[in-house]
Specification:
Helix content: over 70%
Low-confidence stretches: none
Oligomer: single chain
Mean pLDDT: 82
Structural class: mainly alpha
């Protein structure tokens, strides 16, 4: 893939917008992933680039939450372990899928993810600020 002025003109504003959306309420990957693909990146590379860039924002947010003592480490530990294995096996699985099939999978997956991100309060529940540590909470997390 060759970087062109056209791809940079598409990519830069959309990645900025995705970072802005992510900083405000999360879900910036719903903007940046299609932007990478519009710029001409293959689906596998677009997903990897999207994950790498979102890792930086997630790391900064996690550090801020830890400093403000908003993290329950006994609850976070199993989540981190599951996220590590889920991302590892998900990445391996995506490499087994052909490029054109992956593009066909991504379009509806992004639409479903966008629906849930934009409708966070659709279940009408108020959640407590602090999660109670229990087996049920660990299982749900």
């Amino acid at each position: 893939m060759e970087t062109t002025l056209k791809s940079l003109l598409i990519l830069c504003p959309l990645v900025f917008l995705g970072g802005f959306v992510d900083a405000i309420g999360g879900g910036g990957g719903l903007v940046t992933l299609p932007a990478y693909m519009l710029a001409g990146l293959p689906a596998h590379l677009a997903i990897a680039t999207n994950k790498l860039s979102s890792t930086g924002g997630t790391l900064v947010t996690a550090i801020r939450f830890i400093k403000e003592r908003l993290v329950s480490f006994p609850l976070a530990a199993p989540c981190v372990i599951c996220a590590f294995f889920g991302s590892f096996f998900g990445a391996r699985l995506s490499l087994l899928v052909d490029e054109r099939h992956l593009k066909l999978i991504l379009l509806p997956a992004l639409a479903v993810a966008a629906f849930f991100v934009l409708n966070k309060n659709m279940f009408g529940k108020e959640y407590p600020k602090e999660a109670a540590f229990s087996k049920k909470t660990v299982l749900i997390a």
